[in-house]
Amino acid sequence: MSEIPGPGSRASSVELQIARVIVASLEQATVNVRCLRGPVRRGARFNRLSGSAQAIDLTLTQAVVYRRRVTALDTGLTAFVTLRGKGVQHLKTGTLASGWQVIEGANPLP
Predict the structure, then answer these.
(1) What phi and psi, each to the nearest 5 degrees, are found at residue 90?
(2) Across-strand partners of 30?
(3) How far apart are CA 108 and CA 40, in angstroms?
(4) Which of 6, 14, 32, 55 is in Cβ range 3.0-4.6 Å of 19 for a Cys bridge?
(5) Nearest 5°: CA angle at 85, between 84 and 88?
(6) Start-to-end CA span in the chain (Å)
(7) Given this model, what pLDDT does residue 4 score?
């Protein structure tokens, strides 16, 4: 996997809020998300998980909005996404009582 661009790079900072973890295996998860800061493009890398010190290194490999695959998620959209990499076991379904996790990262360079 390539390195996540640092602050000041041309890659944009992105955030997804985890609503529900649908399916998870050791290195891949299908997750229902809301885009908090986008657009989030396919290939975006996530390395921070709110409320957790656990290390993650996840890549967005697919996004589906209204049963159609898309190459990017705009702010405010909800979607089903596939995340692949280290740390999928730390993703949790959110509730009103427990709150929702947010993953943060960066889009790939164009």
Answers:
(1) -90, -5
(2) 23, 82
(3) 9
(4) 32
(5) 80
(6) 16
(7) 45
Nearest to 105 by CA among 9, 4, 18: 4
Task: Supply the pTM of this predicted model.
Answer: 0.86
- Specify the amino acid at residue 81: V
Going from the C-alpha of 47 to that of each of 68, 96, 98, the distances in angstroms are 26, 24, 22
Q: CA–CA separation, 107 vs 23, rounded Å? A: 24
- Cα separation, 77 vs 24, whole angstroms: 22
Rounded Cα distance, 94 and 73, in Å: 20
Residues 33 and 83: beta-carbon distance below 8 Å: no
Structure confidence at residue 11 (pLDDT): 54
